[in-house]
UniProtKB/TrEMBL annotation:
Belongs to the pyruvate kinase family. This is Pyruvate kinase. The lineage of its organism: Bacteria, Bacillati, Bacillota, Bacilli, Lactobacillales. The keyword Transmembrane does not apply. Residues 160-486 form the Pyruvate kinase barrel domain. GO terms for molecular function: ATP binding; kinase activity; magnesium ion binding; potassium ion binding; pyruvate kinase activity.
Length: 531
């Protein structure tokens, strides 16, 4: 039996008015189309409700955080709706001036119920709604998302709804005035990257930031980003002082620190994380530095693999340096979600951070493993109160995103970070453009705040001049609850520019909904006609 999120009421007076205006004279074909559309929408609503409840029933035992239960149920309804291709249905609904279901994320059942109600009125089927039972559930929608964002990311500035996160450079440990300027420019959250520096430097950053907040008269959340099982180039071995790789050239990739056969392999990359190469088959892709270099495995050796360069970001080749990331899109490495270093870093993060982020999470099992370690370190009650940031940077994580969200948000406050660098390396740039939107939609359905990161205004932050492409990218980033800037020589100017972009964007767009403010172009055009 139906359980509408918003109870329907028969409006006989409205029906009489409609008939008095000639609605009963609408062509029979159109009446039949409306009735058919009404029946189809009612059946869709019933199926979404039934399938969503079944999915939620599977999740419910693992959800111990009451604040997430209704959000999880809305997510289940959204997934039930989006497993269908409803593009033709959208066109038919738009024809009659009805919602085309394009903005249902935060309140799925309410949207479906509203359309069914309006179709019933239009098709003269209002009596069919008399048997709709009422439901006590009231889905909070975007208000719930705003509440979650405020709790995790802090109060948004008065003039914009999207927060700005900034990665702190080592300078932040010694230059308090620098942090004051970042705050005055618009930084709302400070990111400490635990892949760099050490706990002594991080603690000095925290101390300086706390002092800077008092000087600037502004609060700022502190986010510790745990490095995770990132596979990196730990060392580069070459006879050249500044080794470079061009298309067609080869390098040797190994986990054996003693391997030094430069006679046969002029450039050797060492990565301690690659303790075995069983997962790397011939022709397996190898990505370096978020796609700056792409290669393929052409030969396997006992000490590692030979990789031939297929693409580089520059025709003259790429300078090879340590600490650059390695990605293997077609290979799955069974690495623990937390390294020994990560566990030590967590002890600091739990004490100092407002949010703690985790990298390369692949699915719900990784989330459970993280929560177990947090419980061991902080105790059950304290661990459940720690806000988590799960970074989505692999295709595997995207494929398991709903289960991942339920596992994390079912026990902890949660935000999702779209880490587009590694995700692009894993999925490719074409797929990334689609995936980042899908992540936004699913997170909105679950009322989970999103942090948009990686290469936002990168040229501006590094060189002081933005590109046209990154201006458009930053505009789209306004759909998230937070946008992250990386460190660079012009990060202060980058914050100012991003602040202006976000303010402008929110006047024109709210999530997927266009905001129709008055256009100067339209006003000027009308003034000309009046003259």
């Amino acid at each position: 039996m139906f359980q509408p999120a918003v109870p329907f009421r028969t409006n006989n007076l409205l029906l009489k008015k409609m008939k008095g205006r000639g609605v009963d004279k609408v062509k029979e074909k159109e009446w039949n189309e409306l009735r058919s559309l009404y029946q189809e929408m009612r059946a869709l609503r019933e199926s979404v409700h039934e399938e969503g409840n079944a999915l939620y029933a599977e999740w419910e035992p693992s959800i111990t955080r009451p604040a997430f239960r209704l959000s999880a149920k809305n997510l289940a309804y959204y997934l039930a709706l989006r497993r269908r291709d409803i593009r033709m249905l959208q066109s038919r609904l738009s024809k009659w001036g009805l919602s085309s279901l394009g903005r249902t994320e935060s309140k799925v059942l309410q949207q479906l119920d509203a359309i069914v109600r309006n179709l019933a009125l239009m098709a003269g089927e209002i009596k069919q709604l008399d048997d709709y039972p009422k439901t006590p559930e009231k889905f909070p929608g975007r208000k719930k998302l705003a509440t979650e964002a405020k709790a995790l990311l802090g109060e948004a500035p008065v003039h914009r709804t999207t927060r700005i996160m900034v990665t702190l450079p080592e300078q932040a440990a010694t230059d308090k005035d620098f942090l004051v300027r970042l705050l005055e420019r618009g930084m709302d959250i400070a990111r400490i990257n635990c892949a760099h520096d050490d706990s002594a430097v991080w603690l000095q950053m925290v101390e300086n930031l706390q002092a800077a907040q008092k000087i600037a008269g502004k609060s700022c959340r502190i986010y510790f980003d745990i490095a995770g099982p990132k596979i990196r180039v730990d060392a580069v071995l070459s006879e050249k002082e500044k080794p470079r790789l061009k298309v067609g050239e080869q390098f040797f990739l190994t986990a054996d620190a003693a391997f030094n056969d430069l006679k046969h392999y002029p450039i050797i990359l060492f990565s301690e994380s690659l303790n075995h190469f069983d997962e790397l088959e011939i022709d397996s892709p190898v990505i370096l530095d978020d796609g700056v270099l792409e290669g393929r495995v052409v030969e396997r050796k006992p000490q590692g693999v030979v990789v031939q360069v297929k693409k580089t970001a520059r025709a003259k080749g790429i300078r090879i340096k340590p600490e650059k990331g390695l990605n293997f899109p077609d290979s799955v490495f069974k690495l623990p979600i937390l390294t020994e270093k990560d566990r030590k870093d967590l002890l600091v993060a739990v004490e100092e951070a407002d949010l703690v982020g985790f990298s390369f999470v692949r699915g719900s099992k990784d989330v459970v493993a993280i929560q177990k370690v947090l419980t061991e370190q902080a105790g059950t009650e304290a661990a459940a109160a720690i806000p988590l940031v799960i970074k989505i940077e692999t295709v595997e994580a995207v494929n398991h995103l709903p289960e991942l969200i339920v596992a994390a948000a079912g026990k902890n406050p949660l935000a999702i970070m779209i880490a587009r660098g590694d995700l692009a390396a894993e999925a490719g740039f074409l797929r990334l453009s689609e995936l980042q939107e899908e992540i936004l939609w699913i997170c909105e359905a679950a009322h989970i705040p999103v942090i948009w990161s990686t290469q936002v205004l990168e040229n501006m932050v590094k060189n002081g001049v933005p590109t046209r492409a990154e201006m458009s990218d930053a505009t789209m980033a306004a759909q998230a609850e937070c946008v992250m800037l990386n460190k660079g020589a012009f990060v202060e100017e980058g914050i100012t520019l991003l602040d202006a972009i976000l303010v402008q964007s929110q006047q024109n767009q709210s999530k997927k909904t266009a905001q129709l403010r008055a256009l100067k172009i339209a006003r000027k055009a009308l003034r000309k006609t009046k003259k």
